[in-house]
Amino acid sequence: NQQFIGKGTNNFNIYGTADMTTTEIQNNTVGGGVNIYGTILTAHAQGLRPGTTTGTIMGANLRVYPGSLIHYNANGNQQVTGSGPNRLNPISVADSFYYNMKFSGAGNKTLTGVLQMKDSVVITDNVLVDATNFNFGMFGSNATKFLMNNGRLIIGTSGFEPRMQGSWYVTGGVIEFANNNTTSVRTRGGAAYGYQNIEITGNNVYSTAANMNLNPSGTFIIKPTGRYTMDTASVFGAGAGQSFIMEAGSILFCRNVAGFHGPIVGIDGPAVRSNIETVTLQTGSTISYSRSTLNSNGSANQTVTVTMPYQNLAFAGSGAKAPPAGATLEVKGD
Fold first, then answer.
1. Phi/psi zone of residue 6: left (φ > 0), alpha (ψ -120 to 50 degrees), beta?
2. Taking CA 267 as the corner, what is the angle to CA 298 and CA 228, rounded to the nearest 5 degrees?
């Protein structure tokens, strides 16, 4: 690889756009650094500043400034440098974050540390952003914009995810919730956060109290390893063409007072609203009515909806779990 080698306290300042491809910037002298005011593109497999191994920036202090953009754009796998103090030398410890981050090209972009982005995140092309082991986004309240039109984002950490709370422009790609930790992940809901495609692959994934909103033609799929718990929120469709799919082996723990599927009943919404046009329960999927928390009426009762046949049906928790009087409940499996 080609290298820029600095000496002493010399700085490498980027004000415009620097497309580094796999070129490296090296300065092993204390005091020298790379200051990013503009945009830096890296196609290096080891990422921006990996530490002791080769990467775009080696040895030199890395400082980012408002308006700067870090762009991972290789057509192959890349490690993504975290924003922790050991990787990013900020103006102050409190500023240990990037401002804007973009992922394009192809291959896996795998986080090697906690990655905080203050202003915006963009995911496009055929990339897979792998945040299985490290937090992706700012801690606490933030106004980070989230733009995604293709690719896949895998979230494996706990807490409220995705962490970006600013304007969302999610028109494509898949957001996968893969948390298998002992602490649950909560899928971020609310009218401001529209998803295109959701996949649940982890075994400890919960909804929040806010509805999960699918964009037109959006999908919500619980994969065979997925275990998803819903309480008061619904999977809700804005527009037309949405699908909810439970694959063989998947389990939905339904705690909704109004049951699994149908219209909203008073203030109570089912797990899947009737405006989701296609609902598919594959052979081997299971819906477990499992509410134990008392509702506003002082009971844990649930209505067992009968809008479609179940594959496997289970009951847990407390309170009465019963279909409407005179209704026929069809279960094809167990």
1. beta
2. 80
Element (H, E) at 58: strand 57-58
Q: Decide if pLDDT at 98 tops 70.
A: yes
| Listed ranges 85-89, 213-217, 295-299; the one with the highest mean pLDDT | 213-217
182, burial (CB in 10 Å: exposed 0-12, middle 13-18, buried 19+): exposed
Q: Is 94 helix (H, G, I), strand (E, B) or coil?
A: helix
- On the CB side of 127, CA atoms within 13 Å amount to 28
Q: Extract the tokens encoding 112.
A: 């090697």
In angstroms, the CA 219 to CA 241 distance is 9
Number of Cβ within a 10 Å radius of residue 23: 15
Number of Cβ within a 10 Å radius of residue 241: 14
Q: How does the average pLDDT of the chain come out, rounded?
A: 90
- What pTM does this model have? 0.94
Instruction: Quote the pLDDT of residue 53.
Output: 63
CB of 318 closer than 8 Å to CB of 292: yes
| Residue entry with tokens 């929040």 | 208
Average pLDDT value for residue range 234-255: 96
Q: What is the DSSP string of 258-315?
A: T-SEES-BTTB--SEETTSSEEEE-TT-EEEE---S--TTS---EE---SS-BSEEEE
Read off the pLDDT of each residue in 101-112 and give the average, rounded to a whole number: 97
Which residue has 């309480």 as its token pair?
231
Whether 105 contacts 72, CB under 8 Å: yes
The pLDDT value recorded for residue 89 is: 53
Q: What is the mean pLDDT of residues 15-27?
A: 87
Cβ-Cβ contacts under 8 Å for 291 (sequence gap 6 or more): 231, 254, 255, 256, 257, 300, 301, 302, 317, 318, 319, 321
What CA–CA distance (Å, rounded) separates 145 from 89? 24
